[in-house]
């Protein structure tokens, strides 16, 4: 009687596990890629992880339209939701929003990055934006909405580790979620970000000299200094 009960219990566990595995592996997600509203539907995909919906938007004032990329599909690894925004020099803005879900075709609904409110929040940062062949002079920028951090961004070509692969350097205001990132955006640029809490300041004469006779700079100057040191690479 005992072994009969054990056998039945084990059989029930095996059947339940098999159905659970089938259920997880049968998760279906919408699979598509859109650039500036031009979409390439690719049907659906199946995953044992989760579905994702990702929207990226890069606005440049000199262009009448922004660069917008929206992708939906199946997560190969654990999906992590992330939303951030940044306003750099020349009023260039970048918005990123990735959402994850775990129900069948749960990523069908289009997502749009939230817009930063126009109301100033009291934080001021140095703003700059440089690409190859361009030079910028950092200017004060009043941050708005939830962009409460001063950020410096270094963008390099995906797949390259050479210093000459730098394609852009920028600084300005950003949300806290934009800090300390090392990721690929727009499919062709890998960005690294560095943040400080307020307006960067230069070393003062009262700064204590270090062992080499050099005056120590405020931590908040580090992101801006990184940007300026890369100027020679970009010119």
UniProtKB/TrEMBL annotation:
<dbReference type="GO" id="GO:0005576">
    <property type="term" value="C:extracellular region"/>
</dbReference>
<dbReference type="InterPro" id="IPR016054">
    <property type="entry name" value="LY6_UPA_recep-like"/>
</dbReference>
<feature type="domain" description="UPAR/Ly6">
    <location>
        <begin position="121"/>
        <end position="195"/>
    </location>
</feature>
<dbReference type="InterPro" id="IPR045860">
    <property type="entry name" value="Snake_toxin-like_sf"/>
</dbReference>
<dbReference type="InterPro" id="IPR050918">
    <property type="entry name" value="CNF-like_PLA2_Inhibitor"/>
</dbReference>
<keyword id="KW-0964">Secreted</keyword>
<dbReference type="Pfam" id="PF00021">
    <property type="entry name" value="UPAR_LY6"/>
</dbReference>
<keyword id="KW-0732">Signal</keyword>
<feature type="signal peptide">
    <location>
        <begin position="1"/>
        <end position="26"/>
    </location>
</feature>
<protein>
    <recommendedName>
        <fullName>UPAR/Ly6 domain-containing protein</fullName>
    </recommendedName>
</protein>
<feature type="domain" description="UPAR/Ly6">
    <location>
        <begin position="35"/>
        <end position="108"/>
    </location>
</feature>
